[in-house]
Structures are given as structure tokens and as C-alpha cells.
Design brief:
The complex is a heterotrimer of chains A (55), B (479) and C (125). Chain A has 55 residues and is an all-alpha fold. Chain A is built from 3 helices and no strands. Chain C has a domain at 88-125. The chains are: A mainly alpha (55), B mainly alpha (479), C mainly alpha (125).
């Protein structure tokens, strides 16, 4: 096997590590926090308190 | 609520509407520049040269400048609207407040498509580049590009998942390197310091000047967009910049200026070194034109510099695309335009993590299975539909909330001239796309029509009506 | 206007909606490719020349091809000879514009109808 063959396997292995990290963290996060907290983000929070508009 | 500070560390991310975990406000103008330019700069490293194939070198220059005008209009319009409507989702949120829910749904889909396809195109180029490096270092076999394509996408998804500040700081560094590489290549080859190796006169002589005549210039407009496609993505960061009203116009306008320079220099160097037929064939000929131009200089350091530049540009772009596509998808989910499940924010990393994860396999499916020019065309078509929406958006914005009625972070001059120019240039580009890719265009629009009907008659029932309008503005005029 | 309260969507229904959207997406993007209707291809005319002179390449162009690693003109002949065909029918072009304009008109009208609901619910308290 040449250097580039090792690189190919290395790329597959690294991809797998990153993918596993993401999936494990995702499932763990979903299990730890309630859905209400996770999806509580609302649009326009900063504008609601800092902007003043003439009406 | 007046004494409530959303950026304070104690109540970080919480807000009066009930947000307990929101996106993190950490970015500055430089990050906005890096997001905008980072996504686009890859367009100079690959893809724009299809415009040369469409109409020859001069046609590509005309397309470069006309598309430059188009995008200057886009940047002006975007800067005004988004410095006023600052929320994740960018143009989607603008459309929701200014035109209406169905338009917003369509715009959200344009954004996700344009960026996800661009991300796929970047991964394909990164894979190709690594196979080239393998060949240059004397590897005899054919390198399997798939693991590198997968690695590029999964690594960047991981980076995005872990937090926006690291993601865009990474982008800032690699974008700056890729941009410097273009400048250095120009300085080294153009002869400003003597020893120029440009051969424009010979390479563009006789038939090579305008091989298809005037229609070639029109056709080149299609890929002319590729020089700048994605600069409008700066607006996606709106909810994560510390001071949107200042940072967004600044970053966006600085971005378009950077790109106008980079695009023209790229055209100059590449057409002065590479015969147009080879340059214009981005599939079998020059996949990475700046890299090829560096090879033709015969200078080993330049070859390495532009090789690294190409790789960095593709990574910066894919990185920005993951960021933007996931923000748009997240915003759609948050408003229940898409299943609300996607509207989740990671409590520690403060990123729209479910949207990031969801889009990974889609990008992979296109990166691994579809040829580059088709992927680019999907991306350009979605972008084009989005640019056609922008002038409509701008005209209605000024009509529903005239100047002085609400506070705008930035007001662009000469309205409605930029909007009308943009509309006219979009119409020209539709003809250009029609000349080669009419079937895809019609298929794409058929898709949006079906999706629109699906949204209007089914999906919209899950959306709360009045709550969608989140900006603290007065009632629009005429409603 | 009465305050509209959106129903809560079940997990299964959410999943189904995502599946519909994905099917539409892949359908629209893959169908032209699968049916071989995707345009954009160039073609090489029959009997096209394969020598540098025949293809009208001047000394500079030949030198650049050599520098790129192509010393045999036949190796790049397909790239040099390939041309797009820009012939088109006006009818198809007009049809395309009708479809595009129709799409935007439909979208603006339906959006406006939904927008009026949003505004009246938001501002008529």
C-alpha cells in the first residue's frame, strides 16, 4: 500500500469519527433537555427590546 | 422591558418573547466579511470559467462586470433591508415581513438549495484537487475522491455544530489566505514588476476573441453569476452579530468590493495564460483555473500557493454554506413553516444543530452523484429566483414603510434604480440559462409551484398568524 | 379577526412532511438528469480536425498546451473542437417567460392574501 492508499483510509476514518461525534452529541442533547427548552428560540428578541420606531 | 439586555452574560440568550436558548451573539464585521467573501471566493477558483466556454474570454469579462452590477444592486438592497430586519433566515425573514408567508417559504427554499448545492460543488472540487495533488506527487493509481469529499463535508459540519465563532474565525483566516493568493499570482505574472507572462493578444486573436459572436456574451451571463454567488449570505448571520445594523452593511459592501477586485484579477490572469477552449471546459479541461494558471508559470512556489488557495477557498465556501443553509432551514422550522423540530438550538454550542445534521446527507447525495456543472446550475437557478425576488421586496419595503417611518440601519441611494436594474439583469440571465439549461429551469420552477401549493393548502395550517410578524414596526401602509 | 391557533403537529406528521419535501426536492433535481433531458452539453462535429494547424491554434496556444502537458494535439482535440449549440425556438423562450411570470404572480397573490391575515391579527387588537 502506498502513502495515498493510507490517506484514503485515513479520510474515511476521520469522517467516521466526526460523524459519530455529531450523532452521539445530538442524541445525548435531545435526551438531556426538554423539547420546550430546545425549541424556545424566538425571532426578533433583540429588536423587541432595543429598537424604537415611530408609529 | 426597556432595561433588559439580551447581550448580558447573566441572561445570555434569553429574551422577552420566551427564548431560553437562542443563537449566540458574538460576531463582528470581519466575520460578516469572511462569511460573504468566504462563500463566494471559490467562484474565482473554479466554475466561473464555464462562462469562458459559453462565449469566449471577452464574453466572460463582460459577464463578469454585468454580474458585478447585478450583485452590487443585490448588496445595496440587502444591506438596507437586513440592517432593519435582522434575524436568522435573512431574506426569508425579510420576505415574511414585507411580502407574505408563501413568498417567504419559497425564499427559504431558494436559500437552502442554493447553499446546499454550492456546498456539494465545493466538496467535489476539493476531492478533485486532492487527486491532482496525488498525481503531482507521483501517485500512479487513480485516487478515490469519495473519502475526501465525505471528509470535507463531515468535518465542516462538525465545526459548524460546535459553534459559530470558531467556524467563522476559521473562515476569516482561510479566506484571507485564498484572497492573498490571487493578489500574489497577479503581481507575479502580470508584469507590474517586470517579466510579465501575459499572452492576451495571442490567446484572444481571430476566432478566439468572440467564438460565438454576441449570443455568446448573453450565454456567458449564466456562469457570470458564479463570480459572486453567495455574497447575499451575509444576512444569515444577522442573529449572531453583536451589532447587526452596523456590521451587516459594512461586511456586505466591503465583501462585494473585494469580490469585484478578485473577479477581475482572476479573469485577467487566467485568460492571459490559458487557451480559451481549455479554460472554458471546467469538467474535462481546467477544473481549477487559477491552479492551472499557476502551473503554467512554471514556478513551484506559486503552484503550491494556488493549490492551497484553491483548497482553502473550497473549504471556506462549503463552511459558509453549511452555516447559511442551516440558519435558513432553522428559521423555517422555528416558524413552523417546516416541522418545528428543526427550530432547536443546542444549549451548549448555541447552534441550530438539528438543521446542520439534517442537511449533511443531502449535500453528500449531490456531491457524490451529480456532475459539477449540473450542481452549479441548480445552485445558480435557486440564486437567480432569489435575486428576482429582491427588487420586488425592495419596492414593497419602501412602499409599505416609507423613509422615516421606521429606523433603517443603512439606506441605499438612488431607489428605485438598483431594484429596476437588478430586475432587468435577472431577466437577461433567465434567457442565458434558457440557452443551455432550459429543461432544468422549467423542472425547478415546476418544483417551486408544487411546493408552493403544498405549503398554501396544507403546511400553512401549522403556522400561527400574527406571531410571525416579530419586528416592532408600525402597521404597513395600505393594509 | 379571530385569533388563529395553530394545531400542534404530531411527530409522525412532521416526519411525513419532511419526507414529502425531500421527495419533491430529489424528484425535481434528479428527474432531468435521469431522463437525460439535462441540457448544457457540448458536441464535437463529425470529422473535426485533430492537428494543431487544422484546429487553428497559433504558436502561443500550442506552447501553452505543451506547458499544460498536452504534447499530442489529439489528446485535447475534443476539448478544442467541442461547441455549444445556441439555436432555440422563440416559442419555447416565450413559454419559459410566461411560466416564470406566472409563478411570481401566483406567489405574490397568495402571499398577499396570507399577509393580510397576519397584519390584521397582529395590529387589530
Amino acid at each position: 500500500m502506498s502513502f495515498w492508499n493510507y490517506m484514503e483510509y485515513g479520510a474515511w476514518a476521520l469522517s467516521a469519527i466526526f460523524a459519530v461525534y455529531i450523532v452521539v452529541d445530538w442524541l445525548r442533547t435531545d435526551a438531556t433537555y426538554s423539547e420546550e427548552v430546545l425549541t424556545s428560540s424566538r425571532e426578533g428578541e433583540l429588536e423587541a427590546i432595543t429598537e424604537e420606531h415611530r408609529s | 422591558m426597556a432595561n433588559f439586555d439580551i447581550t448580558s452574560k447573566e441572561r445570555d440568550g434569553m429574551g422577552p418573547h420566551g427564548t431560553q436558548v437562542g443563537l449566540l451573539r458574538v460576531l463582528g464585521p470581519a466575520h460578516v466579511w469572511a462569511l460573504g467573501v468566504g462563500i463566494v471566493l471559490v467562484g474565482e477558483y473554479m466554475g466561473w470559467n464555464f462562462a469562458v466556454g459559453k462565449g469566449g474570454a471577452y464574453a466572460a469579462l463582460v459577464a463578469c462586470w454585468f454580474a458585478g452590477i447585478l450583485y452590487t444592486c443585490v448588496a445595496m438592497i440587502d444591506s438596507e433591508v437586513t440592517s432593519t430586519v435582522a434575524a436568522a433566515g435573512g431574506q426569508y425573514t425579510q420576505a415574511k415581513h414585507i411580502i407574505g408567508p408563501l413568498m417567504a417559504f419559497n425564499v427559504g427554499l431558494y436559500l437552502v438549495f442554493a447553499y446546499t448545492m454550492l456546498e456539494a460543488a465545493n466538496a467535489i472540487t476539493a476531492g478533485y484537487l486532492i487527486s491532482q495533488v496525488a498525481a503531482l506527487t507521483g501517485y500512479a493509481g487513480t485516487l478515490d475522491q469519495q473519502p475526501f469529499i465525505v471528509l470535507a463535508i463531515v468535518f465542516l459540519a462538525w465545526l459548524n455544530y460546535r459553534g459559530v465563532l470558531a467556524t467563522l474565525t476559521f473562515n476569516l483566516v482561510i479566506t484571507a489566505i485564498a484572497f492573498s493568493a490571487i493578489i500574489i499570482l497577479f503581481l507575479a505574472t502580470s508584469g507590474v514588476f517586470g517579466g510579465g507572462m501575459m499572452r492576451h493578444a495571442d490567446l484572444m486573436a481571430d476566432n478566439a476573441a468572440l467564438p460565438y459572436g454576441w449570443i455568446g456574451i448573453l450565454a456567458a451571463m449564466h456562469f457570470g453569476l458564479w463570480y459572486y454567488l453567495g455574497i447575499e449570505g451575509t444576512t444569515q448571520a444577522a442573529e449572531e452579530v453583536r451589532s447587526p445594523a452596523r456590521a451587516l452593511p459594512f461586511g456586505t459592501l466591503a465583501g462585494i468590493m473585494t469580490l469585484l477586485i478578485a473577479a477581475t484579477l482572476t479573469w485577467y490572469v487566467c485568460t492571459g495564460l490559458i487557451p480559451w477552449e481549455y479554460l472554458g471546459d471546467g469538467t474535462n479541461g481546467s477544473v481549477a483555473p487559477l491552479f492551472d494558471a499557476a502551473r503554467l508559470t512554471g514556478s513551484q512556489p506559486l503552484v503550491w500557493l494556488l493549490g492551497v488557495g484553491t483548497l482553502f477557498a473550497t473549504l471556506a465556501s462549503a463552511n459558509g454554506c453549511i452555516n447559511d443553509a442551516s440558519r435558513a432551514w432553522f428559521a423555517l422550522g422555528r416558524d413552523k413553516y417546516l416541522p418545528g423540530w428543526f427550530g432547536a438550538v443546542h444549549p451548549r454550542f448555541r447552534t441550530p444543530y438539528r438543521s446542520i445534521v439534517f442537511l449533511v446527507p443531502i449535500a453528500l447525495a449531490f456531491a457524490l452523484k451529480v456532475p459539477l456543472d449540473q450542481v452549479i446550475t441548480f445552485s445558480i437557478l435557486s440564486g437567480l429566483l432569489e435575486y428576482t425576488f429582491m427588487p420586488l421586496n425592495m419596492i414593497l419595503f419602501r412602499r409599505k414603510w416609507p423613509m422615516g417611518k421606521i429606523k433603517r440601519g443603512y439606506e441605499h441611494p438612488f431607489h428605485p434604480l438598483p431594484a429596476l436594474t437588478l430586475l432587468a439583469l435577472c431577466a437577461i440571465t433567465f434567457v442565458a440559462v434558457f440557452l443551455g439549461y432550459g429543461t432544468q429551469l422549467v423542472a425547478m420552477i415546476a418544483f417551486y409551484i408544487v411546493a408552493s401549493l403544498w405549503f398554501h393548502f396544507w403546511r400553512y395550517r401549522f403556522v400561527n398568524r400574527g406571531a410571525q410578524f416579530t419586528m416592532p414596526w408600525p402597521r404597513p401602509e395600505g393594509y | 379577526m379571530a385569533h388563529y391557533v395553530a394545531p400542534k403537529q404530531s411527530k409522525i406528521s412532521q416526519l411525513f412532511d419532511v419526507a414529502v419535501l425531500l421527495a419533491l426536492t430529489f424528484g425535481a433535481l434528479y428527474l432531468p438528469l435521469l431522463l437525460k433531458l439535462a441540457g448544457g452539453g457540448k458536441s464535437v462535429p463529425d470529422g473535426a480536425p485533430t492537428t494543431w494547424e487544422g484546429m487553428g491554434q497559433n504558436a502561443t496556444e500550442i506552447a501553452q498546451y505543451n506547458a499544460l502537458g498536452f504534447t499530442d494535439p489529439a489528446a485535447v482535440a475534443d476539448i478544442i473542437n467541442a461547441r455549444f449549440d445556441y439555436s432555440f425556438s422563440w416559442g419555447a423562450l416565450i413559454l419559459m417567460f410566461v411560466i416564470i411570470v406566472g409563478y411570481y404572480v401566483m406567489m405574490l397573490r397568495l402571499s398577499d392574501r396570507e399577509y393580510r391575515d397576519v397584519i390584521s391579527e397582529k395590529f387589530d387588537k
